[in-house]
Amino acid sequence: MENESVLIQEEKGSCVILTLNRPKSMNSLNFEMLYALRDAVDALQYRSEVRSVIITGAGDKAFCSGADLKERATLSQDEVKKFILTIRNLLTSVQNLNKPVISAVNGIALGGGTELALASDIRVASSTAVMGLTETRLAIIPGGGGTQRLPRIIGVAKAKELIFTGRRVDASEALSIGLVNKVCEPDKLIDECMAMADMIAETGPIAVEMAKYAINQGIETDLATGLAIESNAYRVTIPTEDRIEGLTAFREKRKPVYKGK
Fold it and tell me: Domain segments of the chain: what residues?
């Protein structure tokens, strides 16, 4: 095990960058990493000054290669169940975090690594990225939400193909099937993600939070219920100071200064 922290947290303006820091193990997920990520995500939900989160991997080879199979081999069946429940709860908290999460997929992202990216709101991949839910090749299935999130993002038929075969896809194919939002050169990856984070920082904090809530909750329902969820989320933004600031700034032809109030 590395002596350094398994998770590095860096702040750039209103963005927090979380770096999975087990490069010698391809940034694979062990219990220590899961607990560190869980604690970081839990803390971030209470920091209103943080407008977005970027998750990436240390080094230039891997974003996250999935579960640490060396640790997995030492676990009892009950411990494996605990691991699966822990990662499932973690990725749900990533998905539900009250601010946008961007995965900067800087290399190999397999199994739980792809599932971590799927739980994020936006995925930007390096041209060297390789992604896939490869669990069936180990005679198991994705256990961190992959069977549910992948079809919701790329469609049922394509998700079945990738999960049933355990096939890996390169960055180009990931972009073509809608698995990632954008592909860029490796040395531009964090810059691209930060540019997106900077654009998010210009918007109304409450509006973005409510938009994420409306999308996440509404997509799971019929259209009529989704529209009702959107309507309720919109109502939250009406009495805010930020809404008035947005209108005032537009009228005065200046950039708005939002305070999340």
Answer: 7-201, 205-252
